[in-house]
From TrEMBL:
Entry keywords, A to Z: Exonuclease, Hydrolase, Nuclease
The protein's name: 3'-5' exonuclease
Cleavable signal peptide: none
UniProt GO MF annotations: exonuclease activity
Domain (Exonuclease): residue spans on this chain: 7-182
InterPro entries to which the protein is assigned, alphabetical: Ribonucl_H, RNaseH-like_sf, RNaseH_sf
């Protein structure tokens, strides 16, 4: 029996507030860490009207516009699941990679289970901040993306657009993984 190879998928979301269920996931962006040209992105209709004003301010997203133009949450998660499957070539095992993965993971996991009854990522996520902390021995405070970028010098940067942030995170993860331990 052969072991499945890991397919690292950088995922970022933007949300209307701090927790799933009470607040909506508004956008999701993803790309393959090793082949960032293979990407996925969609906007999602809110599941309710609740939002934290600062969450919308930082993203520039509009609940009203998303209610009109976003995908139905079930359709969004079906499309995301299909995209994930298309990256695996029938052999790979998807690994969710995020920067502050607990936040993004909580929404993605909740939405997959609520709308599809399953999560193609399984039940785990890999956090770039934790990997960086382990590689460098830095404090948790020094795992902010700006601190990581100061050390690894990425070409891109994040801007609270889910797809662009997923691409940025993929670059950070590649750079962190290539760090030599001293």
């Amino acid at each position: 029996m052969s072991k499945k190879y890991e397919v690292f998928i950088s995922v970022d979301i933007e949300a209307a507030g701090p927790i799933p269920g009470e607040y909506s996931m508004l956008t999701v962006g993803a790309c393959l860490v090793e082949d960032p040209a293979r990407m996925f992105s969609c906007a999602i209709k809110p599941v309710n009207d609740r939002f934290v004003p600062q969450a919308l301010e930082v993203t520039g997203l509009s609940m009203a516009k998303l209610a009109e133009e976003g995908l139905d949450p079930e359709m969004a998660m079906r499309q995301f699941e299909a995209w994930i499957a298309s990256t695996l070539d029938g052999q790979g095992s998807p690994v969710f990679v995020g920067l502050n993965a607990p936040f993004d993971w909580s929404f993605v996991n909740y939405y997959f289970h609520r709308f599809l009854g399953r999560n193609p990522f399984g039940f785990t996520a890999l956090d770039i901040k934790a990997v960086y902390m382990g590689a460098t021995g830095c404090s948790w405070h020094d795992t902010r993306s700006s601190e990581i970028a100061r050390r690894v010098h990425p070409n891109s940067k994040g801007d609270h657009n889910a797809l662009r942030d997923a691409l940025y995170q993929a670059e950070l993860f590649r750079l962190v993984r290539s760090m030599k331990l001293s």
